[in-house]
Every structure is written in C-alpha cells, then in structure tokens.
Batch of 4 targets.
Target 1
Amino acid sequence: MEYINSFYHFRDLVVGVDTNIPLTDQTYTTAINFDNAATTPPFNHVMNEIVKFSPWYSSIHRGAGYKSQVSSKLYDDARNVIAEFVGANIDHHSIIFVKNATEAINKLSNKLLPLYKDGVVLSTCMEHHSNDLPWRGKYKMDYISIDKYGQLSMEDLKSKLVKYDGKVRLVTVTGASNVTGYINPIHKIAELAHSHGSKILVDGAQLVPHAPVDMKSFDSPEHIDYLVFSGHKMYAPFGTGVLIGPKATFMKSPPDYPGGGTVKIVTHDHIEWLDPPEREEAGTPNIMGVLAITGAIKLLNELGMHNIENYERMLTDHAIDSLQNIPYVELYHNPIKRGESVSIIPFNIKGLHHSIVANILSHEFGIAVRNGCFCAQPYIQRLLNISPEDTKKYIGNSNLPIPGMVRISFGIYNTIEEINTLVKALYHISLNRKFYFERYKKDLYSSFLN
C-alpha cells in the first residue's frame, strides 16, 4: 500500500485532520489533536466501509432474509479478524464483542466470581479505574507497587505471588499506562503468574492500537489468558470493544446479561444457554461497531504495527527532546527507559494548574490535550508524591482544585510540525505564567475532576 512508504501520508487516512476551529482572538486555525489516548478520530476507510455496508444492514443471526445472512456472516467473520490481529486461537478462545474495555473488564469480573471469589486478585498501582474498581467488593485485592518513575515493580509482583502462596487467581495489569505510556512486560508477568497457578488479564486499551500484540499459544507459559481493548482508541467509532478469554471460562456460569440471543431453549421452568460467545452478547449486536473495528484492524495490519510503533516513537522522542528544554516544564517519565512506552507524555508547568494549561492550549492555540487524573487517581497521587493524608483534604471539598497533569498523546496522523507548534505554545505560556493565571484562573473549578 502506498502509505507504508511515507509516514507523512498516514495523515491522509484520518477524518478531520484539517478542521478549522475558532480561537479567543476570533481567528481560526487548523485543530491539533493530542488527545488520542482518550479517543482517536476515525479512519476514512472505516467511514467509507460503513457507508458501503449500510444498504445491507439488517438483523444478526436467525434471520432468513438475504441481507440478514450477509450481516450475520460479516459479524461472525469479524472474530477471525480479531483473532489474527492479536494472536488468539479461535478454537480455544471466545471473542466477545462488548461496548468498550470497561464493559469487558466488568463482564470478566462477574464471570470469574463463581470460580475465584475465595482467591486473590492482584491489580497494580498504575491501573486505569476500569481495571481496578470492577474487582473491588468482589474479591480480596492487593496492588503491585511502582517505582519512583511510576513503572511496575517486578520484584513486588514476585514477592506478592510468594506471599499469597498459590491463592492468587488473577493478575490484572495494563499493557500500557494511559498516564505515562509505560509498556509492561506482559509476557514475563504471564510466565510468573502461571508459575504460581494464576491467570493474567491484560488491559490492552492503550497497547493494542500502538504496538504489535501476541497472546501466544495457550500451551506457552508466556501466553495471555484474557485480553481486552476498545475500538474507539484505534480509529473505529460506533462503540465496540473486545473481550478475549478461554471458552471454558464462559461455559461455567450463566451470562451476566441474560436475554434475547443468549439461549437455545426457554420454558417457565428451564433455560438452556447458548455456547459462548453468543451467550455473552445479549440483545441485538452492534454490527456497525464490529464493522468499524474490523475495518480499522485491516488497515492497521496493512500499514504494519511495527511501522506505526516506530513512527509514533519518533514523534514521542522528538517531543520529549523539545519539551525538556522549556523553562518550568516538568516531565513525568524515566529518562533512561524512553523507548519502553507508547506515545503518551504527561507533564506540568510549575505555577500553573493543569486545567489552566489545557484551557490555554485549546483557546489560544487550538491544541487539544487532556488534563486531570485520567481515571487513574491512585497512580497520579503516587507520581505527584501526594501522601494519603494530603489526599484526604480533597475528599468532599469541591472548592479545592485537585492536583493532576497535562497529557499529550499521539496518533499515526500527528506530525513533527504539530509538535513544534505545541512546543512554541508551551514556551510562550511558561514565560507568561502570571498573565495566563490571571486570565484563566476562573477555569480552576470547572474542568479538572477526572
């Protein structure tokens, strides 16, 4: 494909890259989006596929009409596309379509409860709330610690696996942090977990769109038992996520969402459930979302995940080299291990609250970033060295601005020129902090919560 030979042409693949937006001075500028870790814009290819399929859109499964048969085949074939993309085994694994990674993890936490309710679930101190909160109140939990840079402590993982002496049933870990971008050694973690009788879940929401992922053969000690990821972070809108795990997991209990599409036979006295994955996909499936995510995956495959990873790493290296030379900018990363992350950079400007910096970049320069705690508040508290005692003063106090960070995150369509624009903007902001504080201090109480 022609785009493979020129990284810059990645930009041509994405909807809306040349959109003009208004600034506070009443002029217009081309929007720059550095908030890809939250949601990516869609691929043109995906939107074209949706339009092309629309005349054939119909009910999924059990429909005798021709359009229904076409829609059903597309939906069922999508599981093969997913399996090939992440190295799943279609005979061993169930590939279940859900709304997003959050729903996937919640579903798995429900499904494992009959099996693991007396066991221990090990999460980590660097997780998104979606890979922490679903496990609370159901299981005995503990957290693997992090070092001063926010990277996972493998030594603490080993220690806790030994401490619980075979009682750990699941190690649940992010593939790449949505705050720092750090990539965890998921296969080493898997091997350790398996050696102590545990399984592993990888939250792949930030890893799968940016780097090659291989679940590996289930007879390998390094295999990944469960994997989740979301389409909306990989250029595929319309709300579809994926949960992958052993079929046996989903055969051992009723679906957590029973209803239409989950059963073989129902009487007032008896229910016979369908086999997975169908029993876990209650109601009318989101065929448009599934078409979107498989269309995005096909294009990502064509471009090559290694090519994408290398290009985004080049963008990240250039941004870090530039940002660390700006006065008053504080970067939160390990300078020795820069290559061990996806394209996410958190920072602050001394003397300016993160919400002020984000609003200035948006209103004055047309640059979209994210600010706050990125749904990972315990991780942010540790990265900012906020003690548990200090954290308590923010609880129930809506008049106290919550500490956090500014996050920039790149996609394949971002460019060196856009980063240079950001660097110039931040340099200007850093040298005019008092002026901007007075102009934007009203925003301290409006947009910082998560």
Note: Residues 1-5, 446-450 have pLDDT under 50 and may be disordered.
Target 2
Amino acid sequence: MKKVLIITYYWPPAGGPGVQRWLKFVKYLRDFGIEPLVYIPENPHYPIEDATLASEVVENLTVYSQPLFEPYGIAKVFSSKKTKRISSGIIQTKNQSVFEKAMLWVRGNFFIPDARKYWVKPSVKYLSDIIAKEKLKTIITTGPPHSVHLIGRELKKLHGLQWLADFRDPWTSIGYHKELRLSKNSQKEHKALEHAVLNEADKIVVTSKTTKEEFESITKQPISVITNGYDLEHSGEVDLDKGFTISHIGSLLSGRNPENLWKVLSQIARENAVFRGDLQLEFMGVVSQDVMDTMYRYELGPYIKMRGYGSHAEALRKQQSSQLLLLVEIDSEETKGIIPGKLFEYMAAKRPILAVGPQGWEAGEIIQGTNAGKVFDYSALEPLKNTILAWYEAYKKGSIVSESVDVERFSRRALTEELSKLL
C-alpha cells in the first residue's frame, strides 16, 4: 500500500469546516490502496473545538506532531474574545477597537503568510527524519493556514518528493485578505510566496472552478477541482421542527448580511399574523454584530434563536430537522468562487436551501444544478418574497420537501476516489 504524508494544521479536536476535508479523505484513502500518515501541531491554538470529531479518526492511523509557537497565544492574554475571532478569520469591519486594528496590522505585515509561520522550520527538520524512516515519496499540504505549504515547499527541495498542494480557500484573493492592512511590501511578499507555491508544487487541488481559473493565470502546473462533500452515513432522518425554521449553520461573518432577506421576512411578518407565530430564525455558530444589528433594525428580534456553537453531530441533526437551510455569501467579485463546506451537508440533509450570494456564485450554480433549493442575489425582493411564501404554504400543508438530484457525486468517498487517482 502506498504511503502518503498529509501535513495539516487542523485536526481533531479542532472544530469548524477546516478540519472536515482531510479528516474525511483520511477516512477513505485506505479503500483506494493508500495508507495516510498525518502530521499536525502538538499545541495548536484552535479558535473552535469539537471533541466529538476524535471518534471519526480512523483506527491505527500514524499521527506525528511537533510543538509550535503561535503569537495568538500571547495576544489572547490581552483579549481572548477578539483574538479568537481574528484567528478564525472573523474580521469585524465596523467599529473596530484600537486593539483589533493593531492586531490586524501586525497579523498582516509581521506574520507572512500567517501567524503559524514559526512551525515551518522545526517541521522541516523533524519531518526530514520521518520521510527517511517511512520511505515516503509523496506529501500533501493543505491550507489555510498557507504557511503549511511552505513546509511542503522546503521538503520538496530537500528530498525531491512529489508534492500535492491543496487549497481549501484562495490565498491573496480571499475576502478578508484586503482587511489585513497590508503594506505594499507585505502585499508583494504574499504574492511572491503564492507564486512560488503554485509553481513549485507538482500538483494543485482546489475546491472551486473559480479558484482554478484564478490560479491558472499564475501557474502552468496541473490543477484539479475536488470540492468538499458530505458523508453518506449522515443521511438519516429526524423529526422536522414544528415551527417554520430557517436555520443557518456556521459563522455569519461580517459582510454576509443579506439585508433584502431580512427586509422580506419583516414584510411578511407584518402582513401575516399566522406567519409571525410560525417563523423561527435559528443560528448555530458565531454571528457578527453588524448582521445582528440589521436583523433587529428590521424587527426580527422576536424570531431569532441563537444556539451558539454546537458539535458536528448536533449541526447535522439541526440541518435535517430545519424546514429551510440558509446559505449566505458576501456580495463581491472575490467571493464568487467560495463554496462553503456546509453546502454539501445541506444537500445531504434533504432540506430546501435558501441561498443569497453574489451574481455568478459557483455555490449557487451547484444548488441550481442539483435542484437543491433557490438562489438569489442581494438585490432580489419580489422573487425572494414569493419563494418564501410558496415554501411557507407548503409548510402549512406539511409538504415542504427537497427535490434534489445527483448529489451522490459529492459524497466523501466518491471525492476521495478522485483524489486517489491524482496520487
């Protein structure tokens, strides 16, 4: 069986979407003749943890680890909440404190490509012995954090390995990158490192066609699109909520604020007393303050239920029990290629998806192509209102269902088979 070393920052007990992709690839790689070995940090600063994910790690997996120094650990002493938010990519664009502005400037200009850069040198030294011991020929790096790719870059130089670089998100074009208050020199350094990784890796994997097209302007190296997905074992059934629940699972970052949706829901609630009694807006995860402020401005406060962060298993149950599932992306050119990992679990939950995002959104194309829900841009009002009313009428009749098709190609096992062919 061929051995492959996977270098990743996120691993259980990390929670959130960053850990899911490679936790699931590792789960199925053995089915395709590949023995995974995993390298992780020994003392990471995870902004979200989910202890339940440890049960999903395959048996007899070889896991190597090394300590790392993370500046976020020091910053946490001064402001734990703000440090946690910034380290997870949740950047509040409004009413930033002096501390937050300073942290963003330091993060963007002193820690390039990111605050995990100090893990690179000790990892290269440590893994050089592991490569010899395990007689490895292939390594995989997955980012963000993109400093993980710098480990792969150095190991390839030293040992002539086959190196596959996996990008769960873009690098310099991701939405929050421009919020990091980068100097011109820092921007150039980020671009130079991105160029080096994309041109020195033997193969590149991305999660969207948009990112592939973007990277093709930087490198001639082969690029494959392997999206995120869902686990077949999670496609069970639970009792539907009694109320007309519209649920969002995961973080609603600053900028993911569909004001047209809040406006439409507010209008329907004012016009229909029965709808007011049934409507529930449920949020499992962090919601930024500007989103909360907008919902309260539209008098939606009575319908909001904040569930906080839940385990992955709890999130799956909430997806399956909700009447509608809300998917939102920032309305900008840079976010058209963002395909949230939860989209595929939404589809597996077999509940209709209400999606609001930029025009030409790739996630919207997937939803439309699988008939998994309805997609609207940020300017839609009347079509959005009519759709919600149609869904509500179906809910009152007990017949609100998803009519999605061809979602099986997004199962984690099917996607791992695609990956195995590249290896």
Note: Residues 2-230+412-422 form a domain with the Rossmann fold fold (CATH 3.40.50.2000).
Target 3
Amino acid sequence: MYYLVLFFTLLSFIPIFIILTKRRSSNRLPPGSLGIPIIGQSLGLLRAMKANTAEKWIEDRVKKYGPVSKLTLFGAPTVLIPGQAANKFIFTSDSNTLNNQQTKPIQILLGKRNLLGLSGDDHKRIRGALMTFLKPEALKQYVGKMDGEIKEHFKMYWQGKEKVTVMPLMKTLSFNIICSLLFGLEAGARRQKFVIWFGQMMDGMWSVPVNLPLTPFNRGIRASSKIQNMVMDIIQEKRLALEKQEVSPHQDLITSLLTIRGEDGTALLSEREMVDNIMLIMTAGYDTSSILMTFMVRLLANDPVVYAAVLKEQEDISKSKASGELLTWDDLTKMKYTWRVALETLRIIPPAFGGFRRTSKDVEYGGYLIPKGWQIFWVANMTHMNESIFPEPKKFVPERFENQASVPPYCYVAFGAGPRICPGYEFARIETLVAMHHLVTRFTWKLCGKDNNFSRDLMPVPTQGLPILISQKNIS
C-alpha cells in the first residue's frame, strides 16, 4: 500500500517536471538522459549504494557520457560532476552561484534556519556563532568532560562483556556525548525520551517524503516536533540559569550561543536559529563520529601492523598519566598517528558518499550550461579512490597523511574543503581520539561476523552492525 501511494504521488508531479525540463531544453545541456520524470536514476543509484557498488555506477556513467552528465535524482533534474575540479567548484562557489541543497525530509525535520540551508551573510553569521563553541581554543576546556563521559560508556557497555556489536554502541556513545556537551542534558528520563525520538527522526530523515500515517516520514515529523520542543525548553532553562548566574556561559553549546551578542548588543541568533542549528549539529555529529569509530575498529582488526602502532602511541600516553587522571588537550596533540588512521579510514569509507548543491542562476561548467534551479551532485569517493591521487587506493596506508600538505587540494573532502569545511571537525577529532585511546588501552578484539563487508543505506553500515569478540586488559 505504501509503495502504491508513493507511485501515484510521484506520478502527479510528472506534468510539472516535463514543463520545467522542456523549458530548459538546450543543446548546451550536459549529455545524458533525465530518465523517467521525478524517479529518473534514483533507484539505480540507491541499489548501487546498497550493494556497495556506487563508485562503479558513477564510473560507468563517466565512461558513457564524460565527466559532466545530466540525470534525475530524488525528484529533480541533476548534473553529476565528479573529480578534483568539481570539488573545488562546489566548495569555493558562493551563494550567488550555488546554494546548499538538502533533501526535502532534511529540510522539514531539521528546520530551514540551519547552517546547511543558509547562504551569504546569514550563513557567515551563524557559522561564526557556532565556531565560538566549536573552535579548538574553546573545545580545549571540554576534553576532560568528554573523557569522563567516554570512560563511563566503556564501563557500562563494554566492561565484562565477551561480545559486543560496535555500531549501535558507538551511536550510543556519540549520542551521550552530544547530550552532555551540547545540551548539558544528564542521564535520566528526559535523555531516554530524547534517544527514542531521535531514532525516529533519523529514520524519517532517510525516507521517502510521503506524510501519511504510519510512514517513517510521518513518525519522523512528529519526533522532530517533540525534540524541538524539548530543545526550546532547555534553552529557556539555560537562559534563566544564566540570569541567576547558576551556570557558566561556557558550560555547553546552548549557554555559549545564549551569551553571544552582535555589535548592537542584541542576541546574535534568534531562538528559532538556535533550535535549528542545535538539531543540525546533533544530527551531523551523531552519524559521522559513530561511523568513523566503527570502521576504525574494523580496519584495526584487519591490520595488525597499524594496530600495533596505534597501541604503542596510546600506551605511551597512558604511562605518562597518574591513575585516574583525565586526558588533556596536550595528550591529544601526541595522538598524531591515531589521527592519521582516522583520516585514512575516512578516505576509504567517507560517511557521506557525496552531496548536493542547487544552482542560484544559470551556470557554466565544463563547457556546458547547468540551468538555474538544477541540482549538482558531487561525489567524495571519486577523488578518494583515484589511484593517480592516492596510489593503491584500496590499500589502508595511514602514512599518506603524514604530510597533509602533500595531498593535492580539493582531493580529500571527508570534512568538506575551503570555506565550507565542516565546523564540527575539531569536535569529531577530540571524540574519536579519546574513544580510541580507551578502546585500545582497555580491550583487545577480533571480528566474529561471517561477512565483514558493508553496504550504504545512504550512510555506510557494516554487516550485522560489526559484531566483535572482546577481552579486557589488566590495566591496574
């Protein structure tokens, strides 16, 4: 019944789609076929991602049509532009040329005033506000708090176990860190409600946007509304606590945003902008960090040489600490090899396979016209796995990042690039390094699943969530 409704919903858009695409017909359009209106090549790409053959799907299109081609993805006429030049075009173009383009579910569930949906002065203003909390100088003071949260996680979910499933546990870890450092929301009934609603919202975010009862999208909308109300309540509580001087302006992200003022002394962000951008950071941090840590566990299990180097680096840091002493920013600066392992993991398995932008005007690219309002689809893996950029690209070699300046610009885009680099980069780095420190110094593990491959349900997902057998070390 659900797919029947979806079919007729998409069918109803066909006349509009035909009018829009015919109006823009031109010999200067890129080669390729738009396919069936609205649906186009969406199902083929999703099938390839599910089978983990999306790179080949892209390569086949490039062989057939060249480096610039048109198609239809997720309801909109689209131009595919993989490669280094394409990445540079995507990440350096201003809002007069390209706008961020998110899927309809993301726009509805996360709100329209978040960083991804803004451009120009609004984008600059809100990015600047978020960076007051996310820049390295500000995050230094939160390393100890994150260390305590991660220690508690391993004690509660890993200690005493013989077998665990990594991905759901890493998602739990990321969620708890988000609650603690972004909201100051401690463990309890409210956090438990939050995690249920958050899961429903995430399911809705990666669903077909059909708002009918019992659909994932409908559940996602209702869950998003509950989360927004909770975040609004927390903002009000923090504002009152700040007025009474019961909390520090730097206690968490919310208190930080509440204390930022513009040049005229008024609040730099509206309450709506606070809610939408808190939800964006919460969602982005939840997926990317948990995926990175999960696949680091997988890759370390398969590479004893790299594992031994990470272990030595982390044990040397442990030996320099007094019993029970929390990690510091200085400790993180010594984890250089571990972070190279993380960067190489993200090169091979980036959480985001690619992304979309929408043209703000008619755009010239590669000798072709991309009409105003069309989507542009860029792909990370087409440079990450290019052997002319990264020799033997399928081989796991953390040493590639020993000198990051040697990597050609706009070829490594796991965190974006240029002025559009991810503002949460440093937050993810701290979380990953602290988690891996405790994992390798407290446990040994080996993979126990029969199939250790992964698929992309938009984001990479290891088979069965990556079950492992673990043994706890004697760390007295």
Note: Residues 81-472 form a domain with the Cytochrome p450 fold (CATH 1.10.630.10).
Target 4
Amino acid sequence: MFAISRCFRLSRCLPAFRRGLSESSQSGPRTLVAIDFDRTIVEQDSYLAVSQLLPTRQRKEMQNLIPKCGWLNFISRVLQLLHSEHKVNFATVAMRVRSLRAVPGMLRVVRRLARIPEVELCIVSDANSFFIDEWLQAYDIECLFAGGVFTNPACVQASGAVLVLPYQEQGDCELCPFNLCKGSVLEELTCSGRYERVIYVGDSCNDLCAMKRLREKDVACIRRGYELHGKIAAHGQELACSVLTWRDGHELVELLMPKIVA
C-alpha cells in the first residue's frame, strides 16, 4: 500500500530478536526494568517537541485536537502537515528528536543498569519507533535495551514523510489509548516466566495501567511532579507492588541500586 524507503524496527519483532541474544549468554533469575520514554527518559514530550516545527498558530490548533482525537492521531496529523505544507522531511524531524534533552541523570541510570548481568532493560512507550530509535542512536545506547522497545511502529515513506501506525487496536482498557495498552505489554512480559521481578519507571496515567499488573515483589517508580504522581494517592491501593518516587535519574539510581543488588 505504501512505498517505503526506510523501515524502522517493528515493536513486535524487535523484542523477540533481542531476547534471543540475551538468552544465549545469560540464565537464572532476571530482573526486567521497563521504562517509559517521554518525560521519563527524555525531559520533553517528543510529540509536542516535533509539533514545534509547525507555525505557532497551526501548532496550537493541532494541540487543541488532542483531547478529542488522541496523541497518535495528533502526531500523525502533525507529520502530515509538516511534510505536505511545510516541506519538512524525516531528516528534519529526526534532528528535532535527537535534540531532546535527557532527564538529568537518566543516561547514568540506563548505562549503570545495563552493566548488571541479571538486569534487562526495555522501553514501553506511546511514542513511536522512529522517534525512539533516533534518540537512542544519538546517544549510542540502543543496544542497551536488550528487552526490546514496545511502541507504535513507524517508517519513512519514499516521499520522505514519516508514517506512524498503531501498536495494536484495543478497546478494553480505559486508562490507555486505543493504540497501546501498556498493561497488556507488562502482563505478557510478567507471564512469560522469563523475569523473576519487574521494575517499571514512568510518569503518566497510562503508566498506571502497567503498574497495576505488577506483583508484590515488583517495584513501581513514579516521577514526582508529573501527572501520575498527582493522582497516585487515589489509586495507591490498587497497586500490589512497592512504590518509589523520584525526581531525576540521579535520585532514581540511588533508590534502585539497593533493591537490585540486594
């Protein structure tokens, strides 16, 4: 249906490949650290950052559509406008994504955890594979996420436009958008029997869905000052796992290390 010149790794294919690499070199109990991307690894929401390539008035009009149409439809429309009306191709979009700042200390978290043989890292995000891959490659850390990247697949068409597709189509979960239920991803991972424990790091209410699937021995790490932290008091009793709150990566790594090496 589409002429595609550059395809980015589909979220359902990549994790299986990466898990195969890890299984050949490691055995025994393992801990999975699953991390959100926007406002958890990178400081800014990547979709809003890319929308800043639009003229101010048009950007505000697009952002007004988010409550009604959702984030995936928002970024799809933004990318379409950038390419068709403003002649912005994938290379410019990639440069914008690569310029996003990491949450302070988060690169330290990722690199330190990746050095622990019993730990496997993955990303669970409602962003997309194009944005995430570009950013990880900019910091040369894509190989550290051996557990995979679970997100909306994206590709670059022959025209140079970026096309984003839904990871799934679901209507059962009210906490998550139609295109990605983070809880279903976490449930699949925890039920695989591969991980003795799961640590989930996030900031938003769709991360709550994933955290509700965690077990008593698992850990939810909620970023202070962001959406989920403000609402967790009303939902804390729904979580079976222990809960940590963190401000930045420097604090997060100090909180996590005793739990992982214990």
Note: Confidence is low (pLDDT under 50) at residues 1-25.
